[in-house]
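WARN retry 2 of 3 for item q-0093 after timeout on previous attempt; input resubmitted unchanged.
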Amino acid sequence: MATLQVSLALSYVVDWIIIICIAVVGVGFQNTTPNHRPFSPVDPNISFPYVEKAKISRLVLAVVSLVAPGVITAAMALILRPGPAIAGNMRKSEIWRLKLWEVNTAWMGLALGLATTFFFTEGMKNLFGKPRPDLLSRCDLDPATVQQYALGGYGTQLPEWNLLVTSAACRQQDRSRLNDGFNSFPSGHSSCTIHDMISNIAG
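OK item q-0093 returned
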């Protein structure tokens, strides 16, 4: 029996290691230079001002999508599990073992879902390279040289910057800020929110 319990515990350790590895790869994607999609200097959809502080910070996102669900699922497992019909025939040590198993299972499901969501979201962001609404503010184009970076075709012959240019036209020295300007889609906030909604419905 003891050997079985050790094997079961080790299997959970392996599961957590896999979840952590998925999240680590997602962090690697996050720190990779994304595809810089060509953009128009007169596109109103990417002409919003750059804001230093986001309305919904990453801390708030972590609390809403990870901490709060983790606390709620743990509380439900510790308070409501197991039901009276099952608990009546179990020793106290067995009841607590079952409660902890429920907590671990709930947390693994939550962590696996968020890790894979983060993995695919960051990977697709790098692949798509869609500009954020504030890209032009981040980019800091030079009006005198913008046409030098126009793409082929009739770009250089069009008036008033009505052309597509590459990110090489940007004067932004902070490469991290510029790279983040091409990480608009899919939204990490939306991905985490959808994950939590699906998890609650499925659960």
